[in-house]
Fold:
Amino acid sequence: MRMKTNKLRIRSKIWIEDETGKVIFGQGRLKILEAVIRHGSIHAAAKELKMSYRAVWGKLKDTEERLGQPLLVRQIGGASGGGSELTPLGKNLFEKFSALQAHVATEVENLFARSFPA
Structure:
């Protein structure tokens, strides 16, 4: 039986867990870091992502605790208004996970094309 595959698409989702199954990093945290890079602020990132500051901060805090290292350098308030930027670990995790995610997506699409030819 032939299927019309020109309208079908494959989707996959990857994330990194610790040995207990707790999420370390995934698409959601990647989007958070991306928004922090763009805005230089957790508050502005949360607003863009339509999430509460507390939810964004909690996800980042959980990841930092599980890795034992900070992802962000935070400047609290003051005359300049504060802000956040990625640490070298945060930048490295952002870049490597982005590349891994793109590679996995390409491989999954290729496997799908071979498994379900038009």
In short: Helices lie at 27-39, 42-48, 53-67, 88-115.
